Amino acid sequence: MKYPFFKSAMAFGLLFFALSNNVSAQSTWTTRISGTTINLYSVVWTGGQLVAVGNSGAVLTSPDGISWTTRTSGTTGYLNSVTWTGNQLVAVGDSGTVLTSPNGFSWTMRTLGTRSYLYSVAWTGSQLVAVGYTGAVHTSPDGIVWTTRISSGTIGTWNSVTWAGNQLVAVGDSGAVLTSPNGISWTPRTSGTKLNLWSVAWTGSQLVAVGISGIIITSPDGISWTQRYVSGNSPSLFSVVWTGNQLVAVGPSGNVVASPDGISWTTRTSGTTNFLRSVVWTGSQFIAVGYLGTVLTSPQVGTAIHSFEKQFSKTSSSKFFYNGTLKNMLGQTIEEIPVPKIHQNK
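RE: above sequence
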């Protein structure tokens, strides 16, 4: 190598440029006009459209997160959660409210059989599982016929439930965690916290739960949990989503935090102080919804650095690795990092 100093300096310069652009991308949220001032509590992506639900029976749909249309749900009650099964939408809410829709436009009221307050619903691939207040757990194969289950005698509130590939995991008030292989039999787990947990997501290799006062806990199996922290502050978090290479969580006062691995978390700027209740990933952008009809959109974050890193490693012997810190800056070999398709050379 004839000019090692020049190439090392070039590496630092190009790295600074990439990092600057990456940080900017991670902070780019755009406020959209939803057409309502009603509080929105949940949003889901069907593969072709976004569907958001909220209080007063609010249902909004959008093909792109930019233009939104208000739909008639047939109820004036609170709708707290909505999920997509692959062929229908299912929304649940207060007083045993359950709605189904094949398209997000027309909705049918279903009979739960109880007046349970339901706060979250998930699809396992073969059944729906809804959880809520005072230990409520209900299952259904189709969204029409529902069966009441007993969550191991617990009477706490379950705020979120997700399917983790081979088991259901529910989280709730006072750090409560339950796991179940089938939605019928449930086992309480020890989370290591007494703070309320509001959302749980599965990345394919670990569970990540978030809640009030910035509590974040992770687990590889739903049994053993480790507490994590957000750098610099402790914003409350009400929803978390996994993109395939990044976790993003949102909460009150426009709080947004991001992490590549569930361990190290960084605060992002959302551009709003409104309460953000739910966030979803469409495959190309984040959509966050919240109080007063708030809707925000943001493109994928954290990919530009990977593309830059791979391209530079092809031409420089002063290779480096970036994952929150700088390493191997002077001649050490970098491991190959998968590059998202949108950054691959044609």
